[in-house]
Every structure is written in structure tokens, then in C-alpha cells.
Amino acid sequence: MRFRYLGNSGFKISEITYGNWLTHGSQVENDQATACVRAALDAGITTFDTADVYANTKAETVLGQALQGQRRESLEIFTKVFGPTGPKGHNDVGLSRKHIMESAHASLRRLQTDYIDLYQAHRFDYETPLEETMQAFADLVRQGKVLYLGVSEWTADQLRIGAALAKELGVQLISNQPQYSALWRVIEGEVVPTSRELGISQIVWSPIAQGVLTGKYLPGQQPPAGSRATDDKGGANMIRRWMRDDVLERVQQLKPIAADAGLSMAALAVAWVLQNDNVASAIIGASRPEQVADNVAAAGVTLPADVMAQIDEVLDPVVERDPARTLESSPKQREA
């Protein structure tokens, strides 16, 4: 495993982060989830990402249980706040001071830890003054309950104003967690250049495009039984945008490139995002322990320029690059 600094800080995280969105507390039984976490630890992963909204708080509980017995100082535990939790009442969502404070303390209990290494605003909240949000985050840092602050799926403009407010309060935003893959490159035009300027790193999710970049989905054929595309608990909705024959045909053309590089298709996809020097870590998920080992093979891999060019040539017609897609990710109104 290799490690990279997160943003303009002295905080290092593993190049591969284990995340439990759409799996723990939902798709995968707890024993299997624990086995996947153990496989991540065995592979040298020290960074774990979750969120209170995943499986309506159950994912945090499962992760906390799975990490028991590990040396806390050797782990980096990340979680997020914004989405509706609990009974989804009128204050059970968003980035108000009330919801942030209550959510942080609940996350600490579920994760069975005294502090959160990185606490992230899961989306931008248009209904709460950003000053209120940043003050609540800063207070958690001063209380020692949170060590570092990050956000997820914020636009370049939102990152700029958030970083300025954090600085005024004597704290720092060091990370953004966007979707990023060889198929989804919307952060490259605006978010990445702004982040470099501000000292913010990306911790990217869905580097294998919900599994599409593994090549297991074939054009003109039904998805394999038990795969993400057949999951009626949310997975099928997320992957739908890529389940087009023109995309799947292009992905199949990556197989000889991966073979020549000595990598699986999944490892090639993860290695691709790690070539971006603004990416500190790629988040992987797993429903089986062996998937962890496959993805971790991407750590420390350098893809030559000609290989990167080949991937670009193959995928170019189906790549999404529009920076406006980031703006769409944060709801203009809360769900609850």
C-alpha cells in the first residue's frame, strides 16, 4: 500500500480507501461485511469511509463493529453528514448546526470511537447559511471530536467560499469527495484546478463506474445475477446511466489494454484515477473479500502516457465531462 497527503496538511491516508456505501447494512450480511473489512486491513488499507445516511445509519454501525480490536491511531475513519437519517423529521437532514451536532455525536457512538478523522459535508446545503455550517464544523474541531474537515460533490465556487470561511474560523477544508472515473470526468475542468489552488485533495468514489469498468456487463446481454445492475435497493438506479450498449462496447475494448498492463479491468480503472495528482485516494467497495485484493492491486501503479492515451482514445465518445453535472448533485431543497 502507498500513502498520500490529504490536501495541504500533514495527514496521510492510504491510496485505496475502503467504503461501505450500498453494501454494509444493506446488500451484504454483517459477517460478510466484516470479512471484507478484514480483507481491506490485510491488504494494507488504513482508511475507511462511510456516512450516516448509508442504510439509514446501519452502515456506520457495521463498520464500527468490524474495526473493533484494531489500533485506533493506525486507522483513518471518515464519515459524512447531510442526508436524511432516523425517522427523517424536519431537522433530520441538511447542514444546520442542530443536525451537524446531533449527527456527529450519533456517528461517534455508532463508529465506537472518540473522534472522527475526517468529517465531510455530504452535499452542499442551499437552505442553511454556509456560515452556520462552517461554524458548527469548526466547533467540532476545537472540541477534538473531529480532526479534519472535508466536503463531497461541491462545485468549484462552493469550494472557494467554503475554504475562505474555514480559514476565517481558523480551520481548513482539506478534501472533496466527488464521483470520478475514466467515464465520469466532470471534475477535471473546474473542481480540480480550483482544488489545487486551495490545497484541497480529491477522495474519489465510484472509480470503476459502479462496476461497469470491470467489463462484466456485456452489450446486448442481461446483467449477471446478483450484480449491482440487478440490485433493487439502490444499486441498479446508480448504474443505469452506464448500461448502454455504446458504453459497454467501448469498455470491452479496454480488456487488451488491461491485459498488457498486467492488471484486471477493475485495477486498471482504479489505477487510472490515481494517476491524477490531485487525487489522494480512490474509494473501493466490496461484497466479497476477493474483490478487495483485486482493487488493491492498483496501489502504486504508474500507467505510462501511451496507456493513458489508449484509454482516452477508446472511451472518448462516451465520457461525461460537463462541469455542470457537479452542480446537479446537491438538491436545491431538502428531502425532509
Automatic annotation (TrEMBL):
InterPro entries: AKR, K_chnl_volt-dep_bsu_KCNAB-rel, NAD(P)_OxRdtase_dom_sf, NADP_OxRdtase_dom. Gene3D superfamilies: NADP-dependent oxidoreductase domain. Keywords: NADP, Oxidoreductase. Residues 15-315 form the NADP-dependent oxidoreductase domain. One of its GO terms (molecular function) is oxidoreductase activity. One of its GO terms (cellular component) is cytosol. It holds the Pfam family Aldo_ket_red. CDD domains: Aldo_ket_red_shaker-like (cd19074). The keyword Kinase does not apply. The keyword Transport does not apply. Belongs to the shaker potassium channel beta subunit family. This is Aldo/keto reductase. It comes from Microlunatus phosphovorus (strain ATCC 700054 / DSM 10555 / JCM 9379 / NBRC 101784 / NCIMB 13414 / VKM Ac-1990 / NM-1).
